[in-house]
Design a protein that fits this description.
single chain, about 55 residues
């Protein structure tokens, strides 16, 4: 079960990173750093919660 959760977190993190990269690429001349910071904070918070749930 733990291996499945780790795989889900890994794939989820990769998917989130890809979406964040696509968003940044689409808005590159003026990415709106407040939104970028909010999205990054949400991403990090989600990963911390998932790590706590696994351990």
């Amino acid at each position: 079960m733990r291996d499945i959760l780790l795989a889900l977190i890994s794939y989820g993190a990769a998917f989130d990173s890809a979406l964040l990269g696509l968003w940044l690429a689409a808005r590159w001349p003026a990415p709106g750093w407040k939104q970028f910071t909010a999205a990054g904070s949400l991403f990090m918070g989600m990963n911390v919660v998932m790590q706590i749930l696994i351990s």
